Amino acid sequence: MKRFALSALVTAMTVAGAAQAGVTDKDILNDQMSTGDVLTNGMGLRAQRYSPMDKINTKTVKDMRPVWAFSFGGEKQRGQESQPMVKDGVMYVTASYSRVFAVDTKTGDELWEYNARLPDGIMPCCDVINRGVALYDDLVIFGTLDAKLVALNNKTGKVVWKKTVEDYKAGYSITAAPIVVKGKVITGVSGGEFGIVGKVEAYDAKTGKLAWTRPTVEGHMGYIWKDGKKMENGISGGEAGKTWPGDLWKSGGAATWLGGTYDPDVDLLFFGTGNPAPWNSHLRPGDNLFSSSRLGIDPDTGKIAWHFQTTPHDGWDYDGVNELISFDYKANGKTVKAAATADRNGFMYVLNRENGDFIRGFPFVDKISWAKGLDAKTGRPIYDDANRPGNPADSKDGKKGKSVLAIPSFLGGKNWMPMAYSQDTELFYVPSNEWSMDIWNEPTAYKKGAAYLGAGFTIKALKDEYIGVLRAMDPKTGKEVWRFNNYAPLWGGVLATKGNLVFFGTPEGYLRGLNAKTGEVEYEFNTGSGIVGSPITWEENGEQFLSVVSGWGGAVPLWGGEVAKRVKHLNQGGTVWTFKLPK
Ligand code: CA
Ligand code: CA
């Protein structure tokens, strides 16, 4: 025991003593191509989750073996949705209940651990998860379930600065990984199920000083801080409540709960926004901007440069937060600066990332019931009014509106779990689910810190054999090139590599590597608990490593109705697994 502790200490000293430079803006911009580290959530600010490494490939992957496994320990398990980061031989990974660990990448030894002291009254809607840290200079920055940003020293795990982003008692929390763009740490907030007001904020990454704030519900004022002075930064959208009735915009939701991406080409942040609050759409006629949308935001000022709303007047909690991923393609001899997103509502969209213009949209799930299709010019859904959950006011006692069967369920054709884009195959690898829900509306009123839905629901599988489908989608044609069906719903991220491989995990515990061109299974390993995290890969001393966090949980067992029964035999956990090829 003593010897073990000593060796851990020596390792820690070696790591601390090694030549270490702080993470710079340039390092962050170059992260996708620099194979020796992982400095951004998404394996690059564009979040393509593509690695140019190919030592682990369709020929060699069968020999890939775990080299160490690190347990988060304690009684606190639940969902582990983190993506690890790697810098100078140290892995920085978050765990449930707002914990951060620094781990030696050679041995799996713990270097330090940070536990946020969470108050009793936190209100996470969808499990006590965290999706990862941001790295900047010598800081490790992350968001907590009580809606704070915390910056830790990367060698000691000690707090350098801490900021309250919002009031957790009003339902705010943070679960997404922040990103750092031009020296500013950018974060969103969760809480759309509690009638919060969504926003995106930028803080000086070194000091934690607030730089700008941009509310994402139309009518709210934004602010920018210059030389210590708070100045108005313009009203989000046009007039207050233009697309909202009465005062409902004051508790309008549109939570930016998944964080964002950044594209240096067009110098814009891309953030998605969640459902308008409450879920009962009959209480809020109008488009309810900027809910269920993607936003292009100026990283220097917080100005909304463009918006694209996927589900105007959302009545199903389809949200619109899913990641928007930049990619270029050639059409008529010209390069199109595009970006794609696979929405909870079952449609995948390709947008012009310079101005948010709709290029094309197509279903990526087998069945969609709530809309007849998309307007070919604007991308606006063509609603089927018979399939919108009914107004409780039309019922005899005014207590329950007409129930409808909606496909997909509100957990989405795709939820938070990030897709990957391969620069080799030019395909998106989309973790998706086939499920439906009975949904009905009920009366509700806003009350600070209380659930604000005005809806009830039961989620059901569409098929006995599977719910999860990993799909290879061609963004130029909208065609599904291949698919891999999985019994349990998929809830973890995807990684594509130049080795012609696509890695992802399943709730049954498997880390799988599929052939990127054909979908054939080339690798599988059971990690002992469900995977709802996102795999990464990097290299050290000429060897390619791959890591993934295992630990079943997240929204499915909490919100999944009939589906929750189907996965209740799955065991919780909390372990980082790291793999490589034999020497
Ligand atoms: Ca890198
Ligand atoms: Ca929501």
Features:
583 residues; mainly beta; Methanol Dehydrogenase, Chain A; six-stranded antiparallel sheet; 40 strands; disordered N terminus; binds calcium ion
Shape: globular
What is the helix content? Answer: under 10%
The CATH class name reads Mainly Beta
SS field, number of helical segments: 4
Total strands: 40
CATH fold topology? Methanol Dehydrogenase, Chain A
The CATH superfamily is identified as Quinoprotein alcohol dehydrogenase-like superfamily
Mind telling me which CATH architecture this is? 8 Propeller
Q: How would you characterize this protein structure?
A:
The protein is mainly β and 583 residues long. It has one domain (6-580): Quinoprotein alcohol dehydrogenase-like superfamily (Methanol Dehydrogenase, Chain A). The chain is built from four helices and 40 strands. The chain has a six-stranded antiparallel β-sheet. A hairpin with a 5-residue loop joins strand 36 (510-515) and strand 37 (521-526). The protein is globular. One calcium ion is lined by residues 31, 34, 37-39.
